[in-house]
Amino acid sequence: MKQRWSVLAVNATLAVIAALTLFPLLWMVSASLMASGEASTFPPPLVPRAPTLANYRELFASAGIGRQVINSLLVSVGATLLSLAFNLTAGYAFAKLRFAGRERLFRTLLGALVIPAQVTMMPLFLMLKQMGLVNSYAGALVPWLASVFGIFLVRQYTLSIPDEIIEAARMDGAGEGRIFIAVVLPLLKPVVVTLSVLTFLGAWNDFMWPLIVLSDRDLQTLPVALAGLSREHVQDTELMMAGAVVTVLPVLLLFLALQRHYMRGLLIGSVKG
Amino acid sequence: MKASRAGWLFVAPAMVAIAVFFVVPVAAALAMSFTDFDIYALADIGNLRIVGLDNYAWLLKTPLFWQALANTFFFVLVGVPLSIAASLAAALLLNSPLARFKAFYRTALFAPVVTTLVAVAVVWRYLLHTRYGLLNHALASIGIDPIDWLGHPQWAMPAIVLLSVWKNFGYNMIILLAGLQAIPKDLYEAASLEGASWWQQLRHVTLPTLAPMLLMVSILTMAAHFQLFAEPYVMTQGGPAQRTVTVLYFMYEEGFKWWSLGSASAVAFVLFLFMFGFTLLQLRVARYKEAM
Q1: CA-CA distance, A264 to A259, in Å (whole number)?
Q2: Which of B109, B178, B264 is closest, CB to CB, to A122?
Q3: Domain count, chain A
Q4: Is omega for the bond preceding B240 within 30 degrees of 0, making it cis?
């Protein structure tokens, strides 16, 4: 009897917490389908009286948000490819290739994690200004080149690959570059997916640096454009909700599709403490 | 020998990138914080002067900077414990053998973590609306008068804490859940044979075993909380009465609105020192407790 009450209490609490957690996201979708002005009536409605896509049409037609969707895609895909190129090679070397000063260099890198990235923003901006990269995709991509976290993630995963496989390839006379591409890379596929989804989501959701480096509206990513729109269109609740849906939905779907890989990255990343 | 050269070649691109776009800027920021780099220096570097510690002295004399520090501390000291408590509670529930549909709940509670902060901040701005917001509507049904969440100096930062807990608790929940699952079952069996209640098991088995993980989680969460920026930028623009101006918001306005990049760099280093100091403090306290 007592057991039955406990089962009920645990599951009811979970259901309530899940409902409260999902509520803002569900309301966002619901309000985005409301007619203009409908969300600002009293009492506040939960569902649209007559669902309409008018807000999405206005968002893409008048506000021209299609451009920012493409910008966000380009920056996120670019960040992902760069991060793979730089972090896979370095992470593999830190795990499997012996070289003088390796351990010390790795410890130094981990130590650098205590410095918040915002410290670099002022000089980085000046540097990019000198190079003519302010207001360019390249400027937005610079912080995604190589990351200590990415290197760490790849290294931790690579450590689980047996040395014998690499040794055997070396015995066969394969060069180091070939060993990496033909032997190691196929084995790293899971961590490639993990690093990709983490980087893509990170770049898509990033705000402060794109806000600083992309002032030209035609180059802005979705979060930056949305922040600007929300300052101009404070009263247009429904339009802003459509903008929020367009921003959130792609990453939410990507996460749902690759959840397992995302969670693995999160857990590997958290053992570093 | 061959592997040694290959090793350097493999790490070189990443190391060069980190050196050029991270190490050099950090050093440059420190140097810039001792200069009066402003909009005139931006136009012509010849206008740049070295001013020693003047930027730091100026910060100490600027009331808005003290306000920003106080606001940030409020967010850290209230937000971090609340966030970790929520994560721990959710993880304990999900780890309960009695819970059903665990995979669904895990995903549902984690979903806000992957959403775009700017977008959900916009959503919350409307949920927190005094008149049409659903939060006040829900509170009205239990007899609480409407609260001007984002318009009242006293409520704006608590409202941002609320959003932040909602957005982030899923992250630590997943980490703590992994920690809970790693606790050997026989510890609980032994405890319940001795007649320990659920509460006693939590206090004497779960929390002590989880302690190192809780320490790590709280250090990382604190570091993230010190970097509060997007929420006030989107929801309150630092207001009302500058009660949501955070250290980073102050840095952004100094550096990229007024183009005082020298003093903005000084702000960044003060923030870094606080984050570093608080991390050391937490490690100290943890070591002290362990020794007891």
Answers
A1: 9
A2: B264
A3: 1
A4: yes
d(CA B38, CA A87): 36
Contact (CB<8Å) B174/A126: no
CA-to-CA distance for A191 and A197, rounded, in angstroms? 10
**Which residues does B225 contact at the CB level (< 8 Å), separation at least 6?**
B75, B76, B79, B80, B83, B164
How many angstroms separate the Cα of A235 from the Cα of each of A52, A59, A61, A229, A252?
18, 15, 19, 11, 26
Q: What's the CATH number where A136 sits?
A: 1.10.3720.10
In a domain, A79, yes or no: yes
Q: Judge whether A65 is closer than 8 Å to chain B, CB to CB.
A: no
- Calpha distance B132→A39 (Å, rounded): 7
CA A238/CA A37 separation, integer angstroms? 7
Residue pair A66/A60 in contact by the 8 Å Cβ criterion: yes
- At A64 the three-state DSSP class reads coil
Residues of A in contact with B38 (CB under 8 A): none
B77 CB within 8 Å of a chain A CB: no
Residues of B in contact with A223 (CB under 8 A): 116-119, 230
Question: What are A60-86's pLDDT values in tens digits?
Answer: 998 889 999 999 999 999 999 999 999
Which one, of B140, B157, B138, B278, lies nearest residue B228 by Cα? Answer: B157
Q: Which domain holds residue A259?
A: 59-270
CB crowding B75-92: b at 16 or more within 10 Å, else e = bbebbbeebbebbbebbb
What stretch of H or E contains A231? helix A222-232
> Can you list the residues of chain A whose pLDDT is less than 70?
1, 270-273
Tens-place pLDDT, residues B113-156:
999 999 999 999 999 999 999 999 999 999 999 999 999 999 99
How many whole angstroms separate alpha carbon B117 and alpha carbon B276? Answer: 25
Residues of A in contact with B268 (CB under 8 A): 116, 118-119, 121-122
* Other residues' Cβ atoms within 10 Å of the Cβ of residue A174: 16
**Angle in degrees, CA B122, B124, B129, rounded to 5:** 105
Domains of chain B with CATH codes: 61-291 (1.10.3720.10)
State the amino acid at position A189 in one-letter form.
K
Residue B50 DSSP code: B
In a domain, A150, yes or no: yes
How high does pLDDT run on average in chain A?
A: 94
**Residue at A247 is within a domain:** yes
Is A39 domain-assigned? no
Give the model confidence (pLDDT) of B28-54 as tens digits: 999 999 999 999 998 888 899 999 999
* Residue with tokens 């780099």, as numbered in its chain: B37
pLDDT at A273: 38
